[in-house]
Specification:
This protein is an alpha/beta fold. It contains 9 helices and 9 strands. The protein has helices at residues 38-43, 59-66, 92-103, 137-153, 171-190, 205-208, 231-238, 249-254, 264-279; strands spanning 26-28, 35-37, 72-74, 109-116, 119-126, 157-163, 195-203, 217-220, 260-261. The strands form 2 sheets. The protein has a 7-stranded mixed sheet with strand order 3-4-5-6-7-8-9, sandwiched between helices. Strand 4 (109-116) and strand 5 (119-126) form a beta hairpin. Zinc ion binds next to loops.
Length: 280
């Protein structure tokens, strides 16, 4: 007789994962529910003009918003070899093919070099549309090569994270990328070249636990989910309600986990200013 017992309050619903600006002439903001003219949103760097909600953008859009003009992609052709022959509800090889068709990239990051505020800079931008931006062997190798390119040419490095974490379809090989990238970043640090880490919605799991938190400056976009395990998993493990704003940039900034929270429309300026400071 369920009505004699107090039912535990249900956990808050999961935030929508579909936060890209949808197709069509008009779009509805996921946060303030305002109906917006799609072109106005795109002109505003995919930020809601009414409430400043940040829609998720692709890696290539991200690079367009940061670089001064044309940029050059490198290491485009690296492809996962499916080392475990993994299959869950469908074969991993099919997921890789679908990711390629959807994003025009062979894995979840685009590596590029170009001018940022007039200064030649290496930028790696992660692609959430490719298997949730997860980090497998290819992402690990490409981030490492971004670092090595920065070292060779003595350039600053920016990595824009947007990732659900390590890629389970590559098992331990994914986890090994965390150590590999961290070791490469240590060499960048020894060479006194700056690394700016930009954390966007979402930055979680093995990516947070390695390079996303290793920036000389860690900069986040407002409202992004940033953490290791998801809030639901933590709540169910510790059996406590999490504080308001937990794993959100404003909370993390207050608790010393981030250096800046910057609106996307100001992000380029903030990165340029930071590089000027670090390299002066
Ligand atoms: Zn809005």
């Amino acid at each position: 007789m369920a009505w004699f017992r107090r039912e535990p309050a249900p956990l808050a619903p999961r935030p929508s994962t579909e936060s890209r600006v949808p197709e069509g002439l008009w779009v509805k903001c996921g946060s303030c529910k305002e109906i917006l003219y799609r072109k106005d949103v795109l002109k505003n760097l995919s930020v809601c003009p009414k409430c400043a909600f940040h829609f998720r953008i692709s890696a290539r859009e991200r690079l367009d918003t940061l670089f001064d003009g044309a940029w050059e992609e490198f290491d485009r052709g690296l492809v996962s070899g499916d080392p475990l022959g993994f299959r869950d509800s469908k074969p991993y090889a099919d997921r890789l093919r679908a990711g390629k068709a959807k994003t025009d990239s062979y894995d979840a990051i685009v590596s590029a070099v170009g001018a940022l505020g007039g200064r030649r800079t290496v930028i790696g931008a992660m692609e959430y549309g490719f298997i949730g931006g997860s980090m497998g062997v290819v992402v690990g190798e490409k981030v490492t090569r971004c670092i090595e390119r920065a070292l060779e040419e003595r350039l600053p490095l920016v990595v824009v994270s947007c990732s659900g974490g390590a890629r389970m379809m590559e098992g331990t090989l994914s986890l090994m990328q965390m150590a590999k990238i961290s070791a490469a970043l240590a060499r960048l640090h020894e060479a006194q070249l700056p690394f700016l880490s930009v954390l966007t919605d979402p930055t979680t799991g093995g990516v947070t636990a390695s390079y996303a938190m290793l920036g000389d400056l860690n900069v986040a976009e407002p409202g992004a989910l940033i953490g290791f395990a998801g809030p639901r998993v933590i709540e169910q493990t510790i059996r406590q309600t999490l504080p308001e704003g937990f794993q959100r940039p404003e909370f993390l900034l207050q608790h010393g986990m981030l250096d800046m929270v910057v609106d996307r429309r100001e992000l380029k300026k903030a990165l340029v200013r930071s590089l000027n400071l670090l390299l002066s």
